[in-house]
Amino acid sequence: MDKSEIITLDREIIDKASGIYADLKRRGELVEDADILIAASCPVEGMILVTDNEEHFRRIENLEVENWVMR
Fold first, then answer.
1. Residue pair 20/40 in contact by the 8 Å Cβ criterion
2. Dihedrals φ, ψ of 70, to 5°?
3. Which domains, and CATH codes, for the chain?
4. How confident is the model at residue 5 (pLDDT cuts 50, 70, 90)?
5. pLDDT tens digit sequence for 49-67
6. What are phi and psi of 26, to 5 degrees?
């Protein structure tokens, strides 16, 4: 069963992304723009970010991150 959902970048997500960008830039820890948009979408949509790149996304405050990859 497919549980994929397309999330539209709305004003709330863009506003959240701009705050994340400003915070990361101020701390000198910028990540790619696409990752900032992904990170902004999760809390706005009430989602947890599941990734194998925890270190990268843990730079972003107030983002719930889980890694489901078994090593």
1. yes
2. -95, 130
3. 11-66 (3.40.50.1010)
4. confident
5. 999 988 889 999 999 999 9
6. -60, -35
> How far is Cα 14 from Cα 46, in angstroms, rounded to an integer?
15
Other CB atoms within 10 A of residue 23 CB: 16
Number of neighbours of residue 57 by Cβ within 10 angstroms: 18
Joined together, the tokens standing for residue 20 give: 């994340």
| Whether residue 6 has pLDDT greater than 70 | yes
Helices 11-27 and 33-45 sit at what angle, rounded to 10 degrees? 130
Encoding tokens for residue 57?
């996304």
Q: What is the pTM of this model?
A: 0.85
